[in-house]
Design a protein that fits this description.
Blueprint: H1 23-35, H2 41-54, H3 58-62
Length: 71
């Protein structure tokens, strides 16, 4: 199993969050959920957030301006 993680969260320690994303972003999350046998886009997003928290290079994530939809 490829399970990693800390002890700061658990299955019952979730909350709702309303976010606004682009349609293409939602479609991509749905595709990733299907491709990786995840229950839904919400889980795909949580996987990405966990990666950013645990392993992601913070400066690379937040210091580079990405604007795929600014055209």
């Amino acid at each position: 199993s490829n399970v990693r993680g800390g002890t700061w969260y658990g299955a019952n320690n979730k909350t709702n969050l309303d976010v606004i994303i682009q349609i293409k972003q939602k479609e991509w999350l749905d595709e990733m959920a299907t491709k990786h046998s995840l229950p839904d886009a919400s889980k795909a997003l949580r996987v990405l957030i966990d990666y950013a928290i645990e392993e992601g290079p913070e400066n690379e994530i937040f210091n580079y301006v990405r604007c795929r939809y600014c055209y």
